[in-house]
């Protein structure tokens, strides 16, 4: 009986010894800014934000011209509502790739939040020039027009959004907003 138990225990012991040996192996440090950015993303996924920030900082110190590192750091800062860091990183990414649509759209949202409305409008219009069928650009431009009280233009952009994304999950909300804008425009015309 003892030899029988030992036969099954041997592979388990071997695996345990192997696992301990692997744990003790030194882990090579990532070599490039992109690899460090991947590590930072891993920290973000497990919500270790201090390590994420320090790893992004290390990656950017290593290569401040790495588009992906700047873009991902900017998107994560945007998601975390760190508007100044998002703006800094996304502006760097935008300088590196001025025709990147995702960078322009996300940077436009940051500008909108920071009340830099003209800069946001320029980016959304740039995206529309690069990709006339981009529904997010139309939607974002419509929301920007609502913010600056340009209700007529807001309606135009929001209707364009619904044409470009007929199955949009927020369609009922956008249609309701368009109706409210139309009512506001009619009310302002009757007062004049």
Protein model, in words:
The protein is mainly α and 192 residues long. It folds into 2 domains: 31-129, Serine Threonine Protein Phosphatase 5, Tetratricopeptide repeat; 132-192, no CATH class. It has 10 helices and no strands. It has helices at 2-24, 33-45, 49-62, 67-79, 83-96, 101-113, 117-130, 135-147, 151-164, 171-191. The longest helix is centred in the N-terminal third of the chain and has 23 residues, at 2-24. The model has no long low-confidence stretch (mean pLDDT 87).
Topology diagram in text:
Layout: H1 2-24, H2 33-45, H3 49-62, H4 67-79, H5 83-96, H6 101-113, H7 117-130, H8 135-147, H9 151-164, H10 171-191
In short:
This protein is mainly alpha-helical and 192 residues long. It is built from ten helices and no strands.
Mean pLDDT: 87
Low-confidence stretches: none
Task: Give, in order, the helices and strands.
Answer: HHHHHHHHHH
In the CATH hierarchy, what is the class of the largest domain?
Mainly Alpha
How many individual domains?
A: 2
Number of strands: 0
Instruction: Say what the CATH topology of the largest domain is.
Output: Serine Threonine Protein Phosphatase 5, Tetratricopeptide repeat
Share of β-strand residues: under 5%
Report the CATH superfamily of the largest domain: Tetratricopeptide repeat domain
Please report the number of helical segments: 10
Report on the biggest sheet: none
* End-to-end gap: 100 Å
Question: Shape, please?
Answer: elongated
